[in-house]
Design brief:
By secondary structure, this protein is mainly beta. The chain folds into 2 domains: 39-220, 3 Solenoid (Pectate Lyase C-like), CATH 2.160.20.10; 259-470, Pectate Lyase C-like (3 Solenoid). 9% of the residues lie in helices and 47% in strands. It is built from 5 helices and 29 strands. The strands form 4 sheets. The protein has a 21-stranded parallel β-sheet that branches. The chain is globular. The two termini are 22 Å apart. The structure holds 2-acetamido-2-deoxy-beta-D-glucopyranose (7 copies). Keywords: Glycosidase, Hydrolase, Signal.
Length: 477
């Protein structure tokens, strides 16, 4: 029934011409509808568009739309081989539980569309834990499926003219703090085992836990996201690339109760066995406020390895630390070839922080001989002001963190700062042109080596990805 009545909804096309005529006729026959023309850039444009209202969606903020979303997407999935499809979410408040995406598909939110996550926990299906974690992050066993979930897909776009997806996480945060949850909290958007993904031009609010979680995926473009959650709530990380290759995150503004970006690759013996690193990651033009966490965290789950991360043009305000490496005995894996430049930091506890004893194990079966390798960490061309401690660099005894390079960095200490701004143990590397004078473990090379620390000059494949301009017309109430 829903499927048949949806057929006339295929009334919008990327290319004009004859089909524009059809559109005009439709508009005449439905004068009560608003005709809108939308333009945006995406990795692919789509041949077919339908509106959520064609599938019984009601945007009153109280009607549950889970079935409407899923029916629409199941219906539109048949166009995968015929130019792909798009689901238009009109202005309104669309309450929903978790739904699954499909391939060659765009979810487009009008600027006044708000997708609201239901707070009825019964509505959230349970799925298996991630194999590289062995268990849920909050609790052993399964986890709630994310609000917007994609598994085994290719060519998926989630975008809008800054439309909103609100996780209404308050209930989850409270239950988590009281220890009342049996399973791990859902994420706002999770895409797994997928490739060619774009998530852009959206406002994401109040996720129950992490906001954006691409995992076991490749070729991922994240652009123009505003992510906001209260700074006091648990684990509301912004964007967490996890065992992903070729990812580009740019032009994002993130304020949250945990790391703005946390780069991950699995947990202890499960992550080691799964063995899937995060590599070829670009992060640029990020603004972050994270009073209790990091602007960019590497770990703590890094057991599949993290390699070739390039971050630049970052503004950090009132955050606990700038770049933080978190690891522990038992993690195994590696964090290597990390390049960060042009970071401006205002009001920080630590500009740089590395922690070798983060702890937090999946279970007691981790291998005490699985030592992480932390090597080739490059920070250059940065200024910081009002900083309490310049750096706390804490390697692992018998497993030092090596190849650390810090050059051309000026850190202005706050009036309340510690007398010794650098605290280094079990680390080795070099420095040049760094104020205040670094610890002796980072041997000063003199000011002629001010450009000593590497930043690659080549482009990663994801930097060469080109987007197209897509335009289409839609009618909505
Ligand atoms: C969504 O996908 C998950 C995992 O792939 C599956 O368990 C679930 O049944 C799917 N839900 C729907 C409504 O198809
Ligand atoms: C993944 O998708 C492909 C193509 O759609 C399909 O053939 C395959 O069965 C899917 N695998 C799983 C595990 O869902
Ligand atoms: C998107 O909306 C958020 C929240 O209202 C706002 O802070 C942000 O500036 C908007 N972004 C753009 C690009 O308009
Ligand atoms: C989407 O975001 C990008 C980057 O922030 C911006 O350049 C572009 O104008 C935005 N597009 C729309 C349709 O808002
Ligand atoms: C040092 O870093 C600043 C930015 O903090 C930059 O403007 C300047 O060009 C850098 N100097 C060198 C020699 O690279
Ligand atoms: C400096 O940092 C402290 C916290 O360490 C904060 O209370 C104060 O407002 C900051 N000052 C400025 C000028 O930002
Ligand atoms: C320096 O760090 C070590 C741990 O690496 C810690 O035990 C010690 O208290 C710190 N010293 C200061 C002065 O903060």
């Amino acid at each position: 029934m829903a499927l048949q009545s949806a057929l006339p909804a295929i009334e919008t096309v990327a290319i004009l011409g004859l089909l524009l005529l059809l559109n005009t006729r439709n508009a005449e026959s439905r004068r009560s509808r608003i005709q809108g023309c939308f333009e945006y850039s995406a990795i692919s444009c789509r041949a077919y568009t339908a509106s959520l209202t064609d599938f019984g969606g009601v945007g009153d903020g109280t009607t549950l739309n889970t079935d409407a979303f899923q029916a629409a997407i199941n219906y539109l999935s048949q166009f995968a081989g015929f130019g792909g499809s798009q689901l238009f979410v009109p202005p309104g408040k669309w309450l929903t539980g978790s739904f699954n995406l499909t391939s060659h598909f765009t979810l487009y939110l009008h600027k006044d569309a708000v997708i609201l996550a239901t707070q009825d926990i019964e509505q959230w299906p349970l799925i298996d834990p991630l194999p590289s974690y062995g268990r849920g992050r909050d609790a052993p066993g399964g986890r709630y499926a994310s609000l917007i979930f994609g598994n085994n897909l290719t060519d998926v776009v989630i975008t809008g003219d800054n439309g909103t997806i609100d996780g209404q996480g308050d209930l989850w945060w409270q239950k988590f703090k009281k220890g009342e949850l049996k399973y791990t909290r859902p994420y706002l958007i999770e895409i797994m085992y997928s490739e060619n993904i774009q998530i852009s031009n959206l406002t994401l609010l109040n996720s129950p836990s992490w906001h954006v979680h691409p995992v076991y995926s490749s070729n991922i473009l994240v652009q123009g996201l505003t992510i906001i959650a209260p700074v006091t709530v648990p684990n509301t990380d912004g964007i967490n690339p996890d065992s992903c290759t070729n990812t580009r995150i740019e032009d994002c503004y993130i304020v949250s109760g945990d790391d703005c970006i946390a780069v991950k690759s699995g947990w202890d013996e499960y992550g080691i066995a799964f063995g899937m690193p995060t590599k070829q990651l670009v992060i640029r033009r990020l603004t972050c406020i994270s009073p209790d966490s990091a602007v960019i965290a590497l770990g703590s789950e890094m057991s599949g390895g993290i390699q070739d991360v390039r971050a630049e043009d970052i503004l950090a305000i009132n955050s606990e630390s700038g770049v933080r490496i978190k690891t522990a005995i038992g993690r195994g894996g590696y964090v290597k070839d990390i390049y960060v430049r042009r970071m401006t930091m205002k009001t920080m506890k630590w500009a740089f922080w590395m922690t070798g004893n983060y702890g937090s194990h999946a279970d007691e079966n981790y291998d005490p001989n699985a030592l992480p390798i932390i090597q080739g960490i490059n920070y250059r061309d940065m200024v910081a002001e009002n900083v309490t401690m310049a750096a706390r660099l804490e390697g692992i005894s018998g497993d030092p963190f090596t190849g650390i390079c810090i050059s051309n960095v000026t850190i202005e200490m706050s009036p309340h700062s510690k007398k010794v701004p650098w605290n280094c143990t079990d680390v080795a590397g070099i420095s040049s042109g760094v104020i205040p004078q670094p610890c002796a473990q980072l041997a000063d090379q003199g000011s002629e080596y001010i450009s000593a620390c590497d930043f690659p000059t080549d482009n990663l494949p994801i930097e060469n990805l080109e987007v197209r301009t897509c335009s289409y017309r839609a009618k909505y109430l």
